[in-house]
């Protein structure tokens, strides 16, 4: 079952903490070596390679790599009304939050006649990944698509693995979610091969694919398993990506006031994603640790995906970490930089304000990660593997770029001419200064 790491009485530096805290054995770097040939094959052979990998990894050879539009409409027609209502509420809430994320253009008047503006421009075309291996993720369709739409992106394509049970098309709820959001470019392509298809585009291999199956995109976003995250790392630079949003992580900072049953169910809720998912409890309370261990022992066998959950909890990426006090715990969770951090402790809101590295923070007993996974309004596509130290979760910012516009008049430039020449000469780039001087002779 879940192991313990005892950090009590040990004052480790942030770097030492990172080395001591649990991480999965198969990381993104190792996975990148495994998926590099997949990325190369899709780049070289397009749809032919996509069909081969679908057969190998998803157990089905899709006839239609591009989902026919009428399949989207029929999936929406057949969607369970309760699921539809849930997705619609998620869309409404996620849209409200993401509309508020739109960054503002600005103009700075630096001096009379000297102006610098900054305009935010959406990228032209995006590729959005919705996972569909061990579980199905229509909620990820919502998170990706709404954020891109609110950013103003015009061309959106979604990919999700083909399912044998759905005749080689993605899961029907994925298709229905796309239809609900008005997306009609959907591909039955999963894993690293989907990321490669978006990054490089793909030529068709069957008459129904046409000559060009998929045009390349500017940005690829979305969550996925370690192979998806690895492929995103490989194509970064060819296209933009969001964060590496790989196997799910939950860290919970809790004290003796936390309900052990809630802590245990929250750990299990995220462990059920993937055997590589990480579940970490950080607590100064030995009593809470013992009570959570006992609850886990009861609950794990009864949960639907017991084998996956047990693997995740027993893996080297999961642990109960004992700390001296909440201050110590705060340093530990900050060094870990979890995708999701729950704080179930006295003064949770004040503690949350002091966290600097986490994909998203869930404050207090009534904000479990499952709320954010579906319907809080926040985005559930979040950085994993410590990427929260330098990356944000998915949002409008993932799909826009800033363009600076510089406009000086004659007098404003002349005022600066001598200074520009002085600095240009000092850099031994005198032609730069000359380009200014030439205007005033
Ligand atoms: N960080 C986040 O924001 C976030 C959000 C939601 C889900 N997730 C994670 O997404 C993942 C979903 O994983 P999933 O597996 O269910 O679906 P997935 O769609 O990510 O992966 C399925 C694909 O993985 C590929 N694959 C499987 N085995 C492979 C191998 N040995 N080599 C190369 N490719 C292989 C196949 O192409 C398959 O189509 C989970 O890890 C979950 O925790 C993360
Ligand atoms: N917990 C996942 C992010 O790591 C998101 C998700 C979608 N569905 C259920 N959960
Ligand atoms: Zn989840």
From TrEMBL:
Cofactor binding summary note: Binds 1 zinc ion per subunit.
Originating gene: hisD
InterPro entries: Ald_DH/histidinol_DH, Histidinol_DH_CS, Histidinol_DH_monofunct, Hstdl_DH
Coiled-coil intervals, chain numbering: none
Organism of derivation: Cellulosimicrobium protaetiae
Binding site for substrate: 248, 270, 273, 340, 373, 427, 432
Lineage of the organism: Bacteria, Bacillati, Actinomycetota, Actinomycetes, Micrococcales
Entry superkingdom: Bacteria
Residues reported to bind Zn(2+): 270, 273, 373, 432
Enzyme class: oxidoreductase
Pfam families hit by this protein: Histidinol_dh
Primary role: Catalyzes the sequential NAD-dependent oxidations of L-histidinol to L-histidinaldehyde and then to L-histidine.
PANTHER family for this protein: HISTIDINE BIOSYNTHESIS TRIFUNCTIONAL PROTEIN, HISTIDINOL DEHYDROGENASE HDH
Protein name, as recorded: Histidinol dehydrogenase
GO biological process: L-histidine biosynthetic process
């Amino acid at each position: 079952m879940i192991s313990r790491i005892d950090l009590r009485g040990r004052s480790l530096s942030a770097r030492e903490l990172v080395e001591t805290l649990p991480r999965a054995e198969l990381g993104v770097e190792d996975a990148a070596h495994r998926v590099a040939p997949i990325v190369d094959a899709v780049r070289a052979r397009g749809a032919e390679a996509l069909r081969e990998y679908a057969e190998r990894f998803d157990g089905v050879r899709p006839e239609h790599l591009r989902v026919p539009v009428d399949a989207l409409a029929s999936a929406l027609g057949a969607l369970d009304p309760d699921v539809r209502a849930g997705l619609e509420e998620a869309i409404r809430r996620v849209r409200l939050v993401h509309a508020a994320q739109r960054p503002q253009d600005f103009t700075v008047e630096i001096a009379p006649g000297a102006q610098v503006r900054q305009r935010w421009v959406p990228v032209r075309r995006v590729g959005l990944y919705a996972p569909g291996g061990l579980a199905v993720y229509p909620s990820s369709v919502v998170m990706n698509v709404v954020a891109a739409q609110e950013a103003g992106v015009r061309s959106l394509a979604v990919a999700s693995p083909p399912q044998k049970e759905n005749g080689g098309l993605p899961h029907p709820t994925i298709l229905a979610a796309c239809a609900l959001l008005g997306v009609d470019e959907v591909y039955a392509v999963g894993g690293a091969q989907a990321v490669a298809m978006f990054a490089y585009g793909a030529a068709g291999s069957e008459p129904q694919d046409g000559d060009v199956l998929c045009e390349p995109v500017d940005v690829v976003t979305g969550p996925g398993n370690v192979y998806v995250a690895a492929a995103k790392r490989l194509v970064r630079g060819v296209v933009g990506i969001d964060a590496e949003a790989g196997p799910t992580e939950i860290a919970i900072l809790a004290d003796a006031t936390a309900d052990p049953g809630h802590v245990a169910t929250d750990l299990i809720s995220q462990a059920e994603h993937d055997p590589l998912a990480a579940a970490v409890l950080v607590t100064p309370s030995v009593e809470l640790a013992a009570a959570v261990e006992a609850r886990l022992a009861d609950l794990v066998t009864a949960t639907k995906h017991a084998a996956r959950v047990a693997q995740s909890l027993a893996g080297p990426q999961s642990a109960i970490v004992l700390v001296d006090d909440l201050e110590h715990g705060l340093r530990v969770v900050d060094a870990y930089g979890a995708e999701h951090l729950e704080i179930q402790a006295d003064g949770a809101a004040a503690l949350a304000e002091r966290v600097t590295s986490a994909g998203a923070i869930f404050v207090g007993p009534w904000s479990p990660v499952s709320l954010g996974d579906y319907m809080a309004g926040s985005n559930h596509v979040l950085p994993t593997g410590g990427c929260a130290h330098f990356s944000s979760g998915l949002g409008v910012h993932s799909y826009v770029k800033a363009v600076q516009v510089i406009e000086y008049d004659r007098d404003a430039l002349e005022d600066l001419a001598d200074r520009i020449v002085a600095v240009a000469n000092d850099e031994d780039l005198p032609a730069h200064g000359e380009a200014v001087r030439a205007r005033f002779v």
